Amino acid sequence: MELAWPGHEEAGTAVTEVVTGEAVVLEVPCARFPSRLLALAIDVAIQLTMLFALFVIVGVAISSHGVNAATAGAVALVVTVAIIVGYPVLWETLTRGGTPGKFALGLRVVSDDGGPERFRQALVRGLAAVVEIWLLLGCPALICSLLSDRGKRLGDLFAGTFVVQRRLPGRHDAAPLPPVNPELALWGTRLEMSGLTDQTAETARRYLARLPELTPAAQAELGERIAAAVRAQVSPQPPPGTPVTAYLSAVLAERRHREHARLAVAAPASGQPGDPARARQPDVPGDAGPATAPRSPGAPMAPRQAGEPTAWAPPAGAASTGEPPGREPPPRRAGGFVPPA
């Protein structure tokens, strides 16, 4: 099923959002013609290199064994078909819609329903490419891609596929969730959601954010798919009769609440002000001596830091500097006293 969301169109690119059978939302733009052409050029260059290398190997093997011309032609035909048809079919089947050229440009072939490309579809695309790309030099593919709103070539039309952009644009700001019923909020505190993946949660969030843009039929169909995926990863099940939107809102609200609580608990461990571990560190760097070290008579006191408790008090009637009564104390400077002249 395909849904086109407004507000996500790029210049010259049709943005398509596809919901797969696994209730995974793929919000990707259809591949533009220049990126597809460059990916095709990379794949063709690889194929031509492989053809040249295999022809050299086969030619050397045939000449060394004295094989006749008919056998040599048959071997050359098999090698050509294996490279031209087998290369894209094998790559797209094993990687679910990718080739080296498409990987380099961030492209992928998917079915019209958003599912991964199957072997039958890859084979149809590979056979059609022999005619429209190799024999006719890509002219039918160019014309069809320019006329199609999804940029489909003839092979895509026959196979029921199209090419999408795998590298997604920047993530949009999270929309506020609908309000949660207090009873559902209390039920959400008992949820076990360790199996809820980020992809499924993001799918549910996008569905709730774009709920007003959907028709009632699309709301019901997509809601049931996404709720089924969430119920498979979250336990216990919601109370009977709970609407899909209320259930998804409660799960996402509880998930976000737990993430915020986890971040709040982890904040003091980062060494922020108020951390008891910092309060126990000495105020003066490099001061390794004890706070109550003995002081010889007449020696000046070390300057006391602000807020440091006084460990020694002078006796009554005596100067705090240790000088005889009636003598002016020397001027002070940072770090101690200036010795008398």
Would you mind describing this structure in some detail?
This protein is elongated. The strands form three sheets. It has a three-stranded antiparallel β-sheet with strand order 1-2-3, with no helix packed on it. A two-stranded antiparallel ribbon has the order 4-5. A two-stranded antiparallel sheet has the order 6-7. α9 packs antiparallel against α10 (216-231). The chain contains twelve helices and seven strands. The chain folds into two domains: 2-165, no CATH class; 182-267, no CATH class. The protein is mainly alpha-helical and 341 residues long.
Which features would summarize this protein structure in a list?
341 residues; mainly alpha; three-stranded antiparallel sheet; two-stranded antiparallel ribbon; 12 helices
Strand tally is 7
Per DSSP, the total helix count is: 12
**Which strand order do you get reading across the main beta sheet?**
1-2-3
Ends apart, CA distance between termini: 95 Å
Q: Return Rg in Å.
A: 37 Å
Tell me the domain tally. 2
Shape category = elongated
What's the pLDDT, averaged over the residues? 75
Strand residue percentage: 5-15%
